[in-house]
Amino acid sequence: MFLKSILWLIFLHSCARAQHWINASQERLEFQEFVSEREENRISQHYLEFYENKKVNQIQLLDQIQSWSKNNISTNAIEKELRNLQNAHTFSSSNRLALFEYFKNQSDVPLLCHIYANDVEIKNAEPFFDATCGLKPISLKDLNPQFLNYDYLLVDGNRIDIQPSSQIYSTGKTHQMVFISDRFIPQEVTGTIQKIKQTPHAPQPWVEGTCDNFKSENSKLSVPVQVYFSKTCTPGIQTNESATWTYIKKNKYTLITTMVIAAAVIYLNSQYELGVTLP
What we know:
279 residues; alpha+beta; 4-stranded antiparallel β-sheet; 13 helices; 48% helix; disordered N terminus
Protein backbone atom coordinates (compact mmCIF):
# COMPACT_ATOMS: atom_id res chain seq x y z
CA MET A 1 0.00 0.00 0.00
CA PHE A 2 2.83 2.35 0.88
CA LEU A 3 4.59 1.60 -2.43
CA LYS A 4 1.41 2.38 -4.37
CA SER A 5 1.21 5.72 -2.60
CA ILE A 6 4.78 6.53 -3.56
CA LEU A 7 4.11 5.64 -7.21
CA TRP A 8 0.99 7.76 -7.24
CA LEU A 9 2.90 10.74 -5.84
CA ILE A 10 5.56 10.30 -8.52
CA PHE A 11 2.85 10.20 -11.17
CA LEU A 12 1.24 13.40 -9.91
CA HIS A 13 4.62 15.08 -9.64
CA SER A 14 5.51 14.12 -13.19
CA CYS A 15 2.27 15.53 -14.57
CA ALA A 16 2.80 18.78 -12.71
CA ARG A 17 6.42 19.22 -13.77
CA ALA A 18 6.13 18.29 -17.46
CA GLN A 19 3.90 21.21 -18.51
CA HIS A 20 5.31 23.90 -20.84
CA TRP A 21 3.68 26.97 -22.38
CA ILE A 22 3.66 28.37 -25.92
CA ASN A 23 2.75 31.97 -26.64
CA ALA A 24 0.31 32.34 -29.53
CA SER A 25 -0.43 35.98 -28.73
CA GLN A 26 1.44 39.20 -29.48
CA GLU A 27 1.76 39.99 -25.77
CA ARG A 28 5.22 38.89 -24.64
CA LEU A 29 5.28 40.38 -21.13
CA GLU A 30 1.67 39.48 -20.34
CA PHE A 31 2.37 35.89 -21.36
CA GLN A 32 5.54 35.67 -19.28
CA GLU A 33 3.78 37.04 -16.21
CA PHE A 34 0.88 34.61 -16.71
CA VAL A 35 3.20 31.58 -16.80
CA SER A 36 5.40 32.88 -13.97
CA GLU A 37 2.39 33.25 -11.67
CA ARG A 38 1.67 29.56 -12.19
CA GLU A 39 5.29 28.62 -11.54
CA GLU A 40 5.41 26.68 -14.80
CA ASN A 41 7.89 26.69 -17.69
CA ARG A 42 7.85 28.47 -21.01
CA ILE A 43 8.81 26.46 -24.10
CA SER A 44 11.84 28.74 -24.57
CA GLN A 45 13.20 27.62 -21.19
CA HIS A 46 12.90 24.00 -22.26
CA TYR A 47 14.92 24.60 -25.43
CA LEU A 48 17.51 26.80 -23.72
CA GLU A 49 18.13 23.91 -21.36
CA PHE A 50 18.20 21.44 -24.26
CA TYR A 51 20.91 23.32 -26.15
CA GLU A 52 22.91 24.26 -23.08
CA ASN A 53 22.98 20.56 -22.10
CA LYS A 54 24.73 19.82 -25.41
CA LYS A 55 27.97 21.19 -23.96
CA VAL A 56 31.26 19.36 -24.48
CA ASN A 57 32.24 17.06 -21.63
CA GLN A 58 34.79 19.15 -19.75
CA ILE A 59 37.16 16.27 -18.94
CA GLN A 60 37.23 15.16 -22.57
CA LEU A 61 37.84 18.74 -23.68
CA LEU A 62 40.76 19.16 -21.26
CA ASP A 63 42.22 15.88 -22.54
CA GLN A 64 41.87 17.20 -26.09
CA ILE A 65 43.62 20.43 -25.18
CA GLN A 66 46.43 18.50 -23.51
CA SER A 67 46.81 16.42 -26.67
CA TRP A 68 47.15 19.58 -28.78
CA SER A 69 49.84 20.87 -26.45
CA LYS A 70 51.85 17.63 -26.38
CA ASN A 71 51.67 16.84 -30.09
CA ASN A 72 52.24 20.36 -31.42
CA ILE A 73 49.12 20.19 -33.63
CA SER A 74 48.92 22.74 -36.45
CA THR A 75 46.53 25.67 -36.29
CA ASN A 76 44.53 24.37 -39.27
CA ALA A 77 44.11 20.94 -37.68
CA ILE A 78 42.97 22.46 -34.39
CA GLU A 79 40.49 24.72 -36.15
CA LYS A 80 39.03 21.72 -38.00
CA GLU A 81 38.66 19.77 -34.75
CA LEU A 82 36.95 22.73 -33.13
CA ARG A 83 34.48 23.02 -36.02
CA ASN A 84 33.66 19.33 -35.63
CA LEU A 85 33.13 19.80 -31.90
CA GLN A 86 30.89 22.78 -32.47
CA ASN A 87 28.82 20.93 -35.07
CA ALA A 88 27.84 18.39 -32.42
CA HIS A 89 27.87 20.55 -29.28
CA THR A 90 27.05 23.96 -27.86
CA PHE A 91 30.07 25.37 -26.03
CA SER A 92 29.36 26.22 -22.38
CA SER A 93 31.07 29.00 -20.43
CA SER A 94 33.41 26.45 -18.84
CA ASN A 95 34.21 25.02 -22.31
CA ARG A 96 35.07 28.48 -23.63
CA LEU A 97 37.16 29.33 -20.58
CA ALA A 98 39.23 26.13 -20.91
CA LEU A 99 39.85 26.88 -24.59
CA PHE A 100 40.68 30.51 -23.85
CA GLU A 101 43.22 29.60 -21.15
CA TYR A 102 45.00 27.43 -23.69
CA PHE A 103 44.90 29.77 -26.67
CA LYS A 104 45.79 32.97 -24.84
CA ASN A 105 49.29 31.56 -24.30
CA GLN A 106 49.68 30.58 -27.95
CA SER A 107 50.82 32.68 -30.87
CA ASP A 108 47.48 32.16 -32.63
CA VAL A 109 45.25 33.78 -29.98
CA PRO A 110 42.80 35.22 -32.58
CA LEU A 111 41.93 31.68 -33.72
CA LEU A 112 38.89 31.50 -31.45
CA CYS A 113 38.00 35.17 -31.22
CA HIS A 114 34.60 34.50 -32.78
CA ILE A 115 33.77 32.02 -30.00
CA TYR A 116 34.75 34.49 -27.27
CA ALA A 117 33.34 37.54 -29.06
CA ASN A 118 30.09 37.47 -27.06
CA ASP A 119 31.42 35.97 -23.82
CA VAL A 120 30.92 38.83 -21.36
CA GLU A 121 32.85 37.19 -18.52
CA ILE A 122 36.00 36.59 -20.55
CA LYS A 123 35.85 40.01 -22.19
CA ASN A 124 35.57 41.71 -18.80
CA ALA A 125 38.36 39.61 -17.29
CA GLU A 126 40.78 40.10 -20.19
CA PRO A 127 41.19 43.81 -21.06
CA PHE A 128 43.38 43.04 -24.10
CA PHE A 129 40.66 40.89 -25.65
CA ASP A 130 38.84 43.50 -27.76
CA ALA A 131 42.01 45.01 -29.20
CA THR A 132 43.54 41.64 -30.03
CA CYS A 133 40.46 40.28 -31.76
CA GLY A 134 39.29 43.41 -33.55
CA LEU A 135 35.63 42.79 -32.71
CA LYS A 136 32.90 44.60 -34.63
CA PRO A 137 29.37 45.20 -33.29
CA ILE A 138 26.60 43.75 -35.44
CA SER A 139 22.96 44.77 -35.11
CA LEU A 140 20.51 41.86 -35.36
CA LYS A 141 18.10 44.23 -37.07
CA ASP A 142 20.68 44.91 -39.79
CA LEU A 143 21.54 41.21 -39.97
CA ASN A 144 17.89 40.24 -40.42
CA PRO A 145 14.92 42.11 -38.88
CA GLN A 146 13.09 38.78 -38.45
CA PHE A 147 15.61 37.77 -35.76
CA LEU A 148 14.10 40.40 -33.44
CA ASN A 149 10.95 38.25 -33.19
CA TYR A 150 12.83 35.71 -31.08
CA ASP A 151 13.43 35.91 -27.34
CA TYR A 152 16.93 34.43 -27.03
CA LEU A 153 20.02 33.84 -29.11
CA LEU A 154 22.77 31.34 -28.41
CA VAL A 155 25.73 32.54 -30.48
CA ASP A 156 28.61 30.07 -30.20
CA GLY A 157 27.00 29.02 -26.93
CA ASN A 158 26.84 32.56 -25.52
CA ARG A 159 23.32 33.37 -24.39
CA ILE A 160 21.89 36.75 -25.36
CA ASP A 161 18.46 38.05 -24.33
CA ILE A 162 17.37 39.62 -27.60
CA GLN A 163 14.77 42.08 -26.30
CA PRO A 164 17.05 44.18 -24.06
CA SER A 165 20.13 43.60 -26.26
CA SER A 166 19.83 43.17 -30.02
CA GLN A 167 23.55 43.42 -30.78
CA ILE A 168 26.30 40.84 -31.12
CA TYR A 169 30.04 41.03 -31.84
CA SER A 170 31.90 39.31 -34.64
CA THR A 171 35.32 38.95 -36.25
CA GLY A 172 33.85 37.93 -39.59
CA LYS A 173 34.36 34.19 -39.07
CA THR A 174 31.65 31.53 -39.05
CA HIS A 175 29.26 31.67 -36.10
CA GLN A 176 26.91 29.02 -34.73
CA MET A 177 23.59 30.69 -33.90
CA VAL A 178 20.43 29.24 -32.35
CA PHE A 179 17.35 31.46 -32.13
CA ILE A 180 14.83 30.47 -29.43
CA SER A 181 11.36 31.82 -28.74
CA ASP A 182 8.08 31.15 -26.95
CA ARG A 183 6.24 31.83 -30.21
CA PHE A 184 8.50 30.29 -32.87
CA ILE A 185 10.21 26.96 -33.47
CA PRO A 186 13.98 27.13 -32.70
CA GLN A 187 16.12 27.96 -35.70
CA GLU A 188 19.78 26.98 -36.11
CA VAL A 189 21.81 29.22 -38.39
CA THR A 190 25.50 28.70 -39.15
CA GLY A 191 27.70 30.89 -41.33
CA THR A 192 29.62 34.13 -41.58
CA ILE A 193 27.83 37.38 -40.89
CA GLN A 194 27.81 38.15 -44.60
CA LYS A 195 26.34 34.76 -45.51
CA ILE A 196 23.65 34.94 -42.82
CA LYS A 197 22.75 38.45 -43.95
CA GLN A 198 22.18 37.23 -47.50
CA THR A 199 20.07 34.21 -46.48
CA PRO A 200 16.26 34.69 -46.28
CA HIS A 201 14.78 33.77 -42.94
CA ALA A 202 11.13 33.49 -41.89
CA PRO A 203 10.25 32.40 -38.33
CA GLN A 204 7.91 29.41 -38.18
CA PRO A 205 5.31 29.74 -35.40
CA TRP A 206 4.48 26.86 -33.10
CA VAL A 207 0.79 27.66 -33.49
CA GLU A 208 -1.16 29.36 -36.27
CA GLY A 209 -4.80 30.49 -36.23
CA THR A 210 -7.20 31.56 -33.52
CA CYS A 211 -8.18 30.03 -30.21
CA ASP A 212 -11.26 28.39 -31.75
CA ASN A 213 -9.49 27.22 -34.89
CA PHE A 214 -5.72 26.66 -34.79
CA LYS A 215 -3.14 24.23 -36.07
CA SER A 216 0.19 23.45 -34.48
CA GLU A 217 3.57 21.95 -35.27
CA ASN A 218 3.14 19.39 -32.53
CA SER A 219 5.31 16.88 -34.42
CA LYS A 220 8.32 19.00 -33.45
CA LEU A 221 7.38 19.14 -29.77
CA SER A 222 9.03 16.75 -27.33
CA VAL A 223 7.01 17.91 -24.31
CA PRO A 224 3.26 18.45 -23.72
CA VAL A 225 2.22 22.09 -23.85
CA GLN A 226 -0.52 24.58 -23.18
CA VAL A 227 -1.07 27.37 -25.69
CA TYR A 228 -1.64 30.94 -24.53
CA PHE A 229 -3.95 32.98 -26.74
CA SER A 230 -5.22 35.10 -23.84
CA LYS A 231 -5.79 34.79 -20.10
CA THR A 232 -9.16 33.19 -20.82
CA CYS A 233 -8.07 30.92 -23.66
CA THR A 234 -5.32 28.36 -23.00
CA PRO A 235 -5.95 25.12 -24.94
CA GLY A 236 -3.64 22.15 -24.65
CA ILE A 237 -1.72 20.28 -27.35
CA GLN A 238 -1.14 16.55 -27.17
CA THR A 239 2.24 15.24 -28.26
CA ASN A 240 3.26 11.73 -29.24
CA GLU A 241 4.43 11.08 -25.70
CA SER A 242 2.43 11.42 -22.52
CA ALA A 243 3.51 13.88 -19.84
CA THR A 244 4.35 11.02 -17.50
CA TRP A 245 6.48 9.12 -19.99
CA THR A 246 8.36 12.28 -20.99
CA TYR A 247 9.09 13.02 -17.36
CA ILE A 248 10.17 9.43 -16.62
CA LYS A 249 12.65 9.40 -19.51
CA LYS A 250 14.13 12.74 -18.49
CA ASN A 251 14.34 11.90 -14.77
CA LYS A 252 14.81 8.14 -14.81
CA TYR A 253 17.79 8.10 -12.43
CA THR A 254 16.01 10.26 -9.86
CA LEU A 255 12.94 8.04 -10.08
CA ILE A 256 15.01 4.87 -9.72
CA THR A 257 16.66 6.31 -6.61
CA THR A 258 13.24 7.21 -5.21
CA MET A 259 11.96 3.70 -5.88
CA VAL A 260 14.98 2.12 -4.17
CA ILE A 261 14.52 4.33 -1.11
CA ALA A 262 10.79 3.53 -1.05
CA ALA A 263 11.52 -0.20 -1.24
CA ALA A 264 14.06 0.11 1.56
CA VAL A 265 11.55 1.96 3.73
CA ILE A 266 8.92 -0.71 3.07
CA TYR A 267 11.38 -3.48 3.90
CA LEU A 268 12.55 -1.84 7.16
CA ASN A 269 8.97 -1.10 8.12
CA SER A 270 7.96 -4.72 7.54
CA GLN A 271 10.92 -5.97 9.59
CA TYR A 272 9.98 -3.60 12.40
CA GLU A 273 6.36 -4.79 12.36
CA LEU A 274 7.54 -8.40 12.32
CA GLY A 275 9.77 -7.78 15.30
CA VAL A 276 6.95 -6.14 17.23
CA THR A 277 4.49 -8.99 16.55
CA LEU A 278 6.91 -11.79 17.41
CA PRO A 279 6.54 -13.10 21.02
